[in-house]
Amino acid sequence: MARETILVVEDDENIQQLVGYNLAKAGFHVVYADNGEQALSVIKREKPELIVLDLMLPGLSGFEVCKLVRKDPKTKNLPIVMLTAKSEENDMAAGLDLGADDYITKPFSPKILISRIKAALRRKEGLSEESGGAKKNGPLAIHGITIDPNRYEVLVGEEAIALTVTEFSILELLARRPGWVFNRQQIIDGVRGYDYVITPRAVDVQVFGLRKKLGEAGKYIETVRGIGYRMQG
């Protein structure tokens, strides 16, 4: 079976080698880019399964690369794990708002990085950690929204909606239990795994983006003040 290809976009040679070494050790095929422009070329040529993307790059920034990847229909669902020295909440929220699936700050644990990458790949393929490769539940329809976790598709009426992996996971989590209130930590745990550290603000950004993409149907994701979110029953 072919190894999954991971693109590491990082201009710091030491960090690039550290990330690449640990990815290769974990069984991935690793390709590299030193800047944003080179990253876009490598994506077209190598068609990686995931990108580890530094934000502070010469030329095109990681933010700009992320935006361009999400705009291209061929790569709009490509998982992106942002890697950066910036740890401020606003930078984290901005990266997630552009469609990043995860966010890791330097210095980082290689073990945690690999864990996050594997989790992002599982979410992309619609696989659960417990299933070992089995398909998820079948399509779900609620309030005119159809969610198919096996095809990774969302329809509002007849219109296909392009969601990031994280947005899709949040939508499915809420839709599977309409009327049930999930607090922000439960959403993080359900979507990313229990070792994920993130602020409530980042969850709010994801839900805001999800509602916006769903259009009129976004109103069915209700805010429960002081607690979290629920899908209207």
UniProtKB/TrEMBL annotation:
This is Response regulator transcription factor. One of its GO terms (biological process) is regulation of DNA-templated transcription. InterPro entries: CheY-like_superfamily (IPR011006), OmpR/PhoB-type_DNA-bd (IPR001867), Sig_transdc_resp-reg_C-effctor (IPR016032), Sig_transdc_resp-reg_receiver (IPR001789), WalR-like (IPR039420), WH-like_DNA-bd_sf (IPR036388). Keywords: DNA-binding, Phosphoprotein, Transcription, Transcription regulation, Two-component regulatory system. The keyword Transcription regulation applies. Residues 5-121 form the Response regulatory domain. Coiled coil: none annotated. The keyword Phosphoprotein applies. Residues 137-233 form the OmpR/PhoB-type domain. Residues 137-233 bind DNA. GO terms for molecular function: phosphorelay response regulator activity; transcription cis-regulatory region binding. The modification 4-aspartylphosphate is found at residue 54. GO terms for cellular component: cytosol; protein-DNA complex.
